[in-house]
Amino acid sequence: MQQITIKALARELNLSVSTISKALRDSHEISPATKSRVLQLAARLDYKPNPYASSLRGKKSRNIGIVIPEVADSFFSLAINGIDATVKEKGYHSIICLTHEDFKNEQAILKELQNGRVDGVLMSVSSETTSGKHIRALMEQHVPVVLFDRVLADVPAAKVITDDIASSYKATQHLLRNGCKRIAFIGLSQQLSISADRLRGYENALREHGNKLSSKHILTCTPDPKKNLAAIKKLLQQKDRPDGIVTAVEKLAPLVYQACGQLSLSIPQDVKLVCFSNLELAGLLNPSLTTVTQPAYEMGQKAAEILLRLLDSKPVHKGDMQIMIPSRLVERNSSGEGN
Amino acid sequence: MQQITIKALARELNLSVSTISKALRDSHEISPATKSRVLQLAARLDYKPNPYASSLRGKKSRNIGIVIPEVADSFFSLAINGIDATVKEKGYHSIICLTHEDFKNEQAILKELQNGRVDGVLMSVSSETTSGKHIRALMEQHVPVVLFDRVLADVPAAKVITDDIASSYKATQHLLRNGCKRIAFIGLSQQLSISADRLRGYENALREHGNKLSSKHILTCTPDPKKNLAAIKKLLQQKDRPDGIVTAVEKLAPLVYQACGQLSLSIPQDVKLVCFSNLELAGLLNPSLTTVTQPAYEMGQKAAEILLRLLDSKPVHKGDMQIMIPSRLVERNSSGEGN
Question: Structure pTM?
Answer without folding.
Answer: 0.82
